[in-house]
Amino acid sequence: MEDQRSINIWYVCGLSLCNFDCSYCASGQPGQGDGRTNDRMWRNEDDPARYQKVLDWIGRQPYRIGLRLQTIGEPFVSWDFLKGAVRISESPNIRFVELVTNGSLLKKRLPRFIDDHGADPGRFSLWVTYHHTEISAPDLVDQVGFARDLGVEVVVNSLVFPDNADDLRHLAALCRERDLRLNVDLGQNFNAAYEGRPFVTVLDDKVVAVMRDLKTDPRIQVTSITAWGSPAGLQCSAGHDYVHITPDGDVFPCRGYQAGGRKTRLGSAVDETFTLDLRQEEFMRCALVRGCTCKEDFLHMRMARTPGRGDHRSLGLGYPGTVPDSELALVHGKLRRIQGVALMRVLESMAE
Ligand code: SF4
Ligand code: SF4
Question: Is residue 134 in a domain?
Answer without folding.
Answer: yes
